Amino acid sequence: MGWSPTQKKGMRLGSKFANDIEKNDVILIARGRGANREIVGCGRVASSALLPQGKDETLLKLPNKSQVQAPESFGSYRLLDPFVVLEGQKWPSFKGVTYQIWAMYELKPVSADDARLCKWLDSKLAMVGKGSTKKQKEKTKKGKSTQLMLPTTEPYFVVTKAEAKRIENAEAKLVNQYAGWLLRTHKREALPHSLPVVFSVDGVSGHVSCDLYDEERRIMIEAKSTTDRHNIRMAIGQLFDYSNLMQLIRGKTVKRAMLLPKRLDSSMEEFLKSIGIASIWKDRKSFVDNIGSVFPQTRLLAVKD
Description:
CATH architecture of the largest domain: 3-Layer(aba) Sandwich
Order of helices and strands: HEEEEEHHEEEHEHEEH
CATH topology of the largest domain: Trna Endonuclease, Chain: A, domain 1
Shape: elongated
Low-confidence stretches: 135-150, 300-305
């Protein structure tokens, strides 16, 4: 929840989210309104309100004692178990539920329209065997098999358009800094590289392009503005996709590297090395990499300004 849990003015959404919602309540997460409404997911509240930690208040602590980096700061958060991803699925009509432009709305089963939506939520939660909005477990009938929809076991972030733009700008800045440093200190040019593959998602078309391609060393480079697990996973998939396309379309076997704002922890760095991905990270005004240890025939860049 973006608002502070101590919010005392207006609709007090931050305070209501932190204090009024109870454990085992069911939350439906949606965004937009009218024809632009999108369903994100639903889940059962499994924790009291928790406060983000860290210098910029973006760290989430999980029950297994691990930490997750959120894409932006916020007021408080709740853990949901189970959490069911609903993006891309058919969802019911919201007609008659609420016409108010609220960031949070309580469904009231006494209303026929609200009850219809609660029933739909029951069916989604029952598919993972964790009960319904009535806080009771659903039992599968003996002799009948049910196809289960496994719950998401990791944090699920919904990024706003403004935050997506901020991430895009941060990556572009990192790419420009590295390209400029590489040219200035090693007289080597690395440029964005497009491959002639066009795709369309929900009517929005695009093309495949890696952030930078070092032609001299044949290294495809994908940049990420943070080193959280979600972004590292995304970069891994992109790099293998790009290198495969480079082989199919250009007939070139290329190396893979990830450009990051700071050095990864040793376990993640070793994992990337084991799958043939080098790391390049910013070190003050310079950049350092482990390309030489991942690809022994390629000269290591470890020069600092």
